[in-house]
Automatic annotation (TrEMBL):
This is Glycosyltransferase 2-like domain-containing protein. PANTHER family: GLYCOSYLTRANSFERASE (PTHR43685), GLYCOSYLTRANSFERASE EPSE-RELATED (PTHR43685:SF5). The keyword Glycosyltransferase applies. GO terms for molecular function: glycosyltransferase activity. Belongs to the glycosyltransferase 2 family. Keywords: Glycosyltransferase, Transferase. SUPFAM superfamilies: Nucleotide-diphospho-sugar transferases. It comes from Methylobacterium oxalidis.
């Protein structure tokens, strides 16, 4: 049982976990309430009814700041995030399960405890009719994610899929809880075409898990997977052009350029690469800044199966970035320098295509101002809790480095990598120090990638200095007491 003077709190509700044929991924964030004790290792189990499944990989990120969780007697950096992957288990069903843990503490003792509950959502491949199952070797499964789409733009996207010159495809539309009238309109727009299949959802998962659900639901007959947004336009030869490239490369992920257009169809730019660089330089460069846009991706099925389940991370991870990293590590990422998709720019886009990123000097000045502000309030002023609660402070000190390290740890246990490249990637992610960043082989002509590196490098220096000052007793955490409950 848990020791009397150590407590763990879990931050908020654990996000739902998708049970796919490749397994399930879940993540949770918490805080260890103790002046000095830390978690040395964790083993997790999913418990549902009489069934228990042990995680096959557990990635622990500890030493995270926790201004909303720390009590007056706690170490200020007692926060942690754990990302786990569970093997597939037919016995687990839709519904609530418990997350049990065996915690090994850094002082050598161990505790068994129940951390939290989690909702499980089972995702099985769709069934096909006998005629549909008799697919050719180049059948493409289209994974489309929708959420309250503009119906006119959605109809145009559906029309562009129908018009593909490569006819052997099936499209799974995973809806993420659209309004009932919009969901009915989606269903009506595809009811005359059996190659479209709509999967409604009773809850909102977010675009990352919704794309995972769409990919996991594709039938086994699909040898390739194409990703689709809900409101763009494919050129008629998109699938045919990309499959010609992907057929020749095992584990291939093929992506293309795209034209930027207004909702009415007027071309804003004939290429996506206006303010970004198409080259990434190294796997470390691809980790820092993605260049693969999901709406242009066509990948071999074995690559998508290897990428599932998508890793659980703190912060915001994109499905296309993760898939690109899996392919990049295998050396199977291929680019078609033609705009095969028309990317519609409107107010609902999750990312903008024509954002002009600030130059390095501006990012450096902005980051140094943030460091100065943090030091003035938290270190000199002794109000560390207030300083850490400033908007985005935790993101660049803790969350973003932890997110990237989790991606690297998950990535480097997959088959198909080169040991030397994996070691270099782990070394980079372990600290994100300025020297390691500068020597990682990234393409530094990309302004966005330079900005990410500056924030990671300086944020890491500040975090290490802060922890050192805390350990030396030069800075007080100044955190209020919280109600303590056994984990």
């Amino acid at each position: 049982m848990i020791e009397r003077d150590i407590w763990i709190s879990v931050d908020g509700r654990v996000p739902p976990a998708l049970l796919t044929r490749q397994g399930a991924a879940l993540g949770l964030r918490g805080f260890v309430h103790h002046p000095s004790t830390r978690i040395a290792a964790l083993q997790l189990r999913l418990i549902q009814g009489g069934h228990s499944v042990e995680a096959r990989q557990v990635i622990l990120e500890d030493g995270l700041l926790g201004p909303t969780e720390a009590g007056i007697d706690d170490a200020f950096d007692g926060g942690f995030y754990v990302s786990a992957v569970f093997p597939p288990c037919e016995a687990l069903r839709d519904g609530q399960a418990w997350i049990d843990a065996t915690v090994t503490w850094d002082r050598g003792t161990a505790s068994c405890l129940r951390l939290a509950s989690v909702d499980l959502i089972r995702v099985d491949p769709i069934t096909e009719s006998d005629s549909a199952a008799a697919a050719g070797p180049a059948r493409i499964g289209i994974a489309m994610a929708t959420f309250n789409p503009d119906l006119a733009l959605f109809a145009r996207q559906i029309g562009s899929i129908r018009a593909q010159t490569h006819p052997d495809w099936i499209c799974v539309i995973s809806d993420d809880g659209s309004q009932p009238e919009i969901l009915r309109a989606i269903a009506a727009s595809i009811e005359d075409e059996p190659r479209f299949r709509l999967l409604p959802s009773g809850r909102n998962l977010g675009f990352y898990r919704n794309f995972e659900r769409a990919c996991a639901a594709l039938p086994p007959s699909c040898a390739f997977v194409a990703l689709s947004d809900q409101d763009d336009v494919w050129l008629p030869e998109r699938l045919a052009r990309q499959i010609a490239t992907a057929e020749a490369v095992p584990y291939c992920c093929c992506y293309s350029d795209m034209a930027i257009v207004q909702p009415q169809g007027a071309v804003v730019s004939p290429t996506y690469w206006v303010h970004r660089e198409a080259r990434w330089g190294s796997l470390g460069g691809l980790l820092l800044a993605n260049v693969v846009t999901g709406m242009t991706v066509l990948a071999r099925r074995e690559l998508i199966d290897e990428a599932l389940p998508f890793p659980a991370t703190p912060g915001l991870t994109y499905h296309d970035h993760w898939i690109a990293l899996v392919a990049g590590r295998r050396g199977s990422l291929r680019y078609v320098a033609e705009p095969l998709v028309r990317y519609v720019q409107h107010g609902g886009n999750h990312t903008g295509a024509l954002v002009r990123w600030p130059d390095s000097q501006d990012v450096l000045r902005q980051t140094l101002r943030r460091i100065g502000h943090f030091a003035k309030i938290g270190v000199i002023g002794g109000r560390l809790r207030r300083a850490a609660a400033e908007p985005s402070t935790l993101d660049w000190l803790d969350i973003e480095p932890a997110r990237l390290r989790i991606l690297v740890e998950r990535l480097t246990i997959l088959p198909g990598g080169k040991p030397a490249r994996d070691r270099a990637l782990r070394r980079l992610s372990r600290r994100f120090g300025p020297v390691r960043l500068l020597t990682c082989g990234a393409n530094w002509r990309d302004r966005y990638r330079r900005g990410v590196a500056i924030e990671l490098g300086l944020g890491g220096l500040l975090k290490r200095a802060l922890v050192r000052l805390l350990n030396m007793g030069h800075v007080r955490a100044e955190a209020p007491a919280v109600e303590r409950r056994p984990a």
